[in-house]
Design goal:
By secondary structure, the protein is α+β, with helices and mostly antiparallel strands. It has one domain (6-60). Helix content is 48%, strand content 18%. The chain has helices spanning 23-44, 53-60, and strands spanning 6-10, 16-21. β1 and β2 form a beta hairpin. The longest helix has 22 residues, at 23-44.
Length: 62
Amino acid sequence: MNIIDKQYIVDENNKKIAVQIGIETFEKIEQILEDYALFNLMKGNSDSDLLELNGALKYYDK
């Protein structure tokens, strides 16, 4: 696992209030979250939602 380079933003009491990360790191995290969500959506899809080839061709031929 990679270490995330981060900088903390603190208030006047030196209390951490935010984290700043590089755009490349953010984009990697965003892609991982999207992939994870899509995987879980596909995994949770029931078999009844699947179309056979002919059914799919008719459905998308609208």
